[in-house]
Amino acid sequence: MNNLFKALLIVAAVLLAWMTYDSVTTPIEFNKERFARELQVVSRLVDIRTAETEYRNLNGDYTASLDTLINWIKTTDAKIVLKEGVLTDKQLEEGMTEKEAVKLGLIKRDTTYVPMAESLYGKNYPVDSLRYIPFSNGQEFELAKAEVVTGSAGIKVKVMCAKAPYTSYLSDLDKQELINLIETTEKLEKYPGLKFGDVEEANNNAGNWE
After folding, report:
1. Distance between CA atoms of 187 and 194, rounded to whole angstroms?
2. Is the N or C terminus of the chain more exposed, i.e. has fewer CB atoms within 10 Å?
3. 207: Cβ–Cβ under 8 A, 6 or more apart, which residues?
C-alpha cells in the first residue's frame, strides 16, 4: 500500500512539473513563432502599401481590389527621368535655375520606362504572391478604401487600409494562446492582427506595428 501511494505521489509530482513547464514554455514558443511570422507579414504589407501609394499617385485614388492592383503592377510601366549635369555654385549664385540650365543644354534630361514591378521592388519580384498572407494557406489580405472629412475646413481625404487578422497566419499554433492574444488585443480596442491605414480616419497609412 505504501509503495502504491509513493508511486502515485511520483506520478503526481511528474505531472505537476510537466504542467508547470508547459505553462511557461507554451507562451514563449507561441510568441517566438508569432514574431517570426509577423516579420514576413509586415514585409508583404509594406510592399502592398508601396504599390497602393504609387497607384494613387498615378490614378488619383487607391484600389480596394487585389486583382486590380496586381494587374496594374504587371502591365504598367514606370517613367524614370534621368538627369545629367548639375548647377555649379557660381551658377546658383548668379540666380540660374535648373529649368534655364536645361534650355541652355548645361543639364540634360532623358526619360526612360521600366516595368512597374521592377521600379517598385527590383527585378524578379513575385508579384502574384502579393495577395497572399504568409502562413495562411492561401488567405488573401483584406483591402478597403474610403473618403473621410478632416479638419474644421471639412477637407475630404482618400484613405485605405490593408489587414491580416491573427487567425489567418497563427491558426495552426496553440489555440488557447491565440484566443488569449485576440482577447487581450480587443480589450485594448486594437485590431487583432496586423494592418496599415484606416478607413475611418486619415493616418498617413501608418502600420499598427510601427
Report:
1. 16
2. N
3. 42, 45, 46, 49, 194, 195, 196
